[in-house]
Amino acid sequence: MESAASKKPCCERVGEFFKSAKFLIYLGHALSTWGDRMWNFAVAVFLVELYGNSLLLTAVYGLVVAGSVLLLGAIIGDWVDKNPRLKVAQTSLVVQNSAVILCGVLLMVVFQFKVQLTTLYNGWLLTTCYIMVITIANIANLASTAMSISIQRDWVVVVAGDDRSKLADMNATVRIIDQLTNILAPMLVGQIMAFGSHYIGCGFISGWNLFSMCLEYFLLWKVYQKTPALAFKAGQKDTDDQELMHLNVQKETGNSENPVEGSQLMNETAEVKKNTSCCYQMTEPIRTFKDGWVAYYNQSIFFAGMSLAFLYMTVLGFDCITTGYAYTQGLNGSVLSLLMGASAISGICGTVAFTWIRKKCGLIKTGFIAGVAQLSCLTLCVASVFAPGSPFDLSVSPFDEVLKHLFGDSGSLRESPTLVPTIEPQIQINATVFEEAPQVESYMSVCLLFAGVIAARIGLWSFDLTVTQLIQENVIESERGIINGVQNSMNYLLDLLHFIMVILAPNPEAFGLLVIISVSFVAMGHMMYFRFAYKSLRSRLFLFCSPEQKPDPNIPSLPNSV
Q1: What is the pLDDT of residue 403?
Q2: Are residues 380 and 497 in the same domain?
Q3: Which of 19, 354, 422, 547 has the fewest CB atoms within 10 Å, i.e. is most exposed?
Q4: Residue 99 pLDDT more than 60?
Q5: Would residue 63 count as lying in a domain?
Q6: Are 518 and 315 in contact (CB under 8 A)?
Q7: Do 58 and 181 fall into the same domain?
Q8: Is residue 243 domain-resident?
Q9: How confident is the model at residue 509 (pLDDT cuts 50, 70, 90)?
Q10: Which domain holds residue 374?
Q11: CATH code of the domain containing 460
């Protein structure tokens, strides 16, 4: 017997989909990620252009962003939990886009008047502009983190309701949007800067964020109207009930106590308020930070979350590190762009595979299969270290390059570069930097490396979606924000460690060692997940064989996950 929905005409079903809360979330997420990807790509280029041929500002910006999320992730998540959903989403949206617009306008001023700013106050005014750009851009990134936690980790769960398959489909669609915008948005803004200028690029990004902010604000309101469940929040309701009960108790005790007891109670209340307004509030962020990490550790999906974080400790991705190494191995910009496209297609295949495998095998087993697939593909990367054409050489000290930069050839300590800017020749950012790639004897090593990296994206993104949905399903509603905030902090921590690892061993001869360390961390991450999966599946089997046994509270309750 056909359902009522299937009896509707095709045009009517399509119209209902475009008006549904699910589609509106997709549209809003596409607008948001498009702006984020354009800005993340452009701000790095802008900072390099501003400081000549130095990566100092880019490195400082990356360090500030990673450190901020690492320290404030739990606090941001706690703020998401303790406030109404619509207020959190709209506030994060306005702060993020306003910060990007302000930063874009400031960059336009710096690009237009850089020579004049350099001569004022011995260059300190321009240095102040650099500090303001990095600070405002960091605020935008923190607001983007809050927006991501709110929409992708909370709103999506509420819109999907109790339908786990719908939640999996929505997570996969959101991730496909991420993959597409990660390629197309930088291409667009890159062409604008190439055929126009950095000044025009800043103006375009600022204008886009202004337009996107208004449209996303409207879309959030429409989703909120179409999903009444978003108006109710478990943590907020419990807090309101506790405050109401506290007021009722005070009212009842106030009517029954004598004046002496009443005055004593007033004195104690005044003292509590005094402590609350001073020391208590000053130490509240520290307590929130501690409580967030303790709550994360006590979660049943702790090992699953840790396994995802360990995957960030790797050089086997399409970032500046891997592309820089590929250049030293003779690959030009055209080949790298094709490889990046193949990586994106592989990632999309991984998201599609996630939904199919989950329906066949269940959520927990999907993560196990994805982990095995990723590790199997990464064996090609390990093989590339010892293949012909590999520059891997343990006789070359990985610290030689660092010592050379610090002390120079004479052995005396070099003077540290100052942030006070000077007039330097600007590098041609718009030109292709891979025009003349160095020649190598054999391409077998680099081919094996990128074959493993691209193939492993299928397992990587399937595993990422698995852990994401495990967190969505098993973390209670009142703790979704703070747990996902700590998860973001863990991801940034391991990502920061992988950059430190590269700084300590920057020469191509040591890249093979970095590959082996990266695969080791990925393997440790999946071992953590295998432990989690084994414990969860064993508990499900035990409960199935012994129906009278009470479930273990430390085991995730996943009715459709096995």
Answers
A1: 52
A2: yes
A3: 547
A4: yes
A5: yes
A6: yes
A7: yes
A8: no
A9: confident
A10: 293-404+442-540
A11: 1.20.1250.20
- Tokens read off for 505: 């061993």
Q: What is the pLDDT of residue 542?
A: 58
Q: What is the pTM of this model?
A: 0.79
Judged against a pLDDT cut of 70, whether residue 83 lies above it is answered with yes
501 in a structural domain: yes
CA–CA separation, 94 vs 205, rounded Å?
15
Query: Does residue 105 sit in the same domain as residue 208?
Result: yes
Cα separations in angstroms, 196 against 190, 225, 406: 10, 42, 38
Question: What tokens were used for 71?
Answer: 């320290």
Query: What integer pLDDT is reported at residue 389 of this predicted model?
Result: 86
Residue pair 495/312 in contact (Cβ under 8 Å)? The answer is: yes
How many domains in the chain? 2
Tokens for 339, please give them.
Answer: 């490889």
394 touches 514 (CB < 8 A): no
Considering the domain architecture, whether residues 306 and 208 belong to the same structural domain is answered as no
H/E element holding 70? helix 56-82
For 153, the 3-state DSSP assignment is: helix
d(CA 288, CA 285): 5
What value, to the nearest 5°, has the Cα angle with vertex 486 and ends 483 and 491? 125
- Computed over its alpha carbons, how large is the radius of gyration of the chain? 27
How far is residue 43's CA from residue 73's CA, in Å, rounded to a whole number? 22
Residues 316 and 391 in one domain: yes
**For the chain, percent of residues with pLDDT exceeding 70:** 77
> Does 193 fall in a domain?
yes
Are 192 and 90 in a shared domain? Answer: yes
346: amino acid identity, one letter: S
Query: Which amino acid would we find at residue 94?
Result: V
Tell me, yes or no, whether 159 and 304 share the same domain.
no
Question: pLDDT digits over 40-76, tens only?
Answer: 888 877 887 777 656 677 778 888 888 899 999 999 9
Half-sphere exposure of 379 (CA within 13 A, CB side): 6
Residues 19 and 164 in one domain: yes
CB atoms within 10 A of CB 485: 29
